[in-house]
Automatic annotation (TrEMBL):
It catalyses: D-glyceraldehyde 3-phosphate = dihydroxyacetone phosphate. It comes from the Bacteria. This is Triosephosphate isomerase. Involved in the gluconeogenesis. Catalyzes stereospecifically the conversion of dihydroxyacetone phosphate (DHAP) to D-glyceraldehyde-3-phosphate (G3P). The active site is at residues 94, 166. It is an enzyme of class 5 (isomerase). The keyword Isomerase applies. Belongs to the triosephosphate isomerase family. Substrate binds at residues 9-11, 172, 212, 233-234. The gene is tpiA. The lineage of its organism: Bacteria, Bacillati, Bacillota, Bacilli, Bacillales. InterPro entries: Aldolase_TIM (IPR013785), TIM_sf (IPR035990), TrioseP_Isoase_bac/euk (IPR022896), Triosephosphate_isomerase (IPR000652), Triosephosphate_isomerase_AS (IPR020861). It comes from Jeotgalicoccus coquinae. One of its GO terms (biological process) is gluconeogenesis. Pfam families: TIM.
């Protein structure tokens, strides 16, 4: 049985003061404990979140990482730095990074390796453009991204992974995939993982859907067999919506 996961992705939002205030507000709410809750925040917000939420089960994650351990890489943050800080998750290959910052499948794979080697869990993002879906290439595109991201990842680590299926056309647009379409893609991702490893690993990998998920849509998504939670952008920025998403993800 896979534990449902709601991972907020704050993207480039929230100053340190705002992050601190969010944590203080969140502490007043009761989060459903049968669901794993995580917040992936800008690097500068991680210390305040980790400190303020340390008595809770909420896991804190980063939104990016550089795959080298240390060295002359001005402006970058390494996986060992994030681990030392207390991060649990690191998003790798979000479509905004792929599209706006030129991140390749190979970069995503190196990032996933670095995160695992440092003892954290990558949330690997995959997803197709609207044009790829309209032309029927979405399944192949996503399978290719999964295969490339998992290249060389050992079976022991693979079962712990989180993969987020985020159709690019549904991100921040208010246009969500139907729960059936989301589930069909999550199923095909699980099938790809089974091809690369085995059924046991495919059954334990958590696969999230992302793209305009709101408190009003989470229950329908979670009623589907292969959707294990959501990676949530906009709706994770308000404590009450975030709390409602966690409640709605309970099975
Ligand atoms: O990582 C989260 C996704 O990009 C979804 O963002 P959104 O919920 O604002 O559409």
């Amino acid at each position: 049985m896979r534990t449902p996961l709601i991972a907020g992705n704050w993207k480039m939002n929230m100053t340190v003061s705002e992050a601190g205030a969010f944590a203080d507000e969140l502490l007043k709410n009761t989060l459903n404990e049968s669901v794993e809750a995580a917040i992936c925040a800008p690097f500068i917000d991680l210390p305040v979140l980790i400190e303020k939420l340390k008595e809770t089960n909420i896991k804190i994650g980063a939104q990016n990482v550089y795959y080298e351990q240390s060295g002359a890489f001005t402006g970058e943050i390494s996986a060992p730095m994030l681990k030392d800080l207390g991060a649990h998750y690191v998003i790798a290959g979000h479509s905004e990074r792929r599209e706006l910052f030129g991140e390749s499948d190979s970069d995503v794979n190196k990032k996933a390796h670095a995160v695992i080697e440092a003892g954290m869990v990558p949330i690997i993002c995959v997803g197709e453009t609207e044009e790829e879906r309209d032309s029927g290439r979405h399944t192949a595109k996503v399978a290719g991204q999964v295969k490339a991201a998992l290249e060389g990842i050992a079976a022991e680590a693979a079962g712990e992974l989180v993969i987020a299926y985020e159709p690019i056309w549904a991100i921040g647009t208010g246009k969500s995939a139907t729960s059936d379409d989301a589930n069909a893609m999550c199923t095909s991702i699980r099938t790809e993982v089974e091809k690369l490893y085995d059924k046991g690993i495919a059954d334990s990998v958590r696969i999230l859907y992302g793209g305009s998920v709101k408190p009003a849509t989470i229950e329908d998504l979670m009623s589907k067999s292969d959707v294990d939670g959501a990676l949530v952008g906009g709706a994770s920025l308000k404590t009450d919506d975030y709390t409602a998403l966690v409640s709605g993800a309970a099975r």
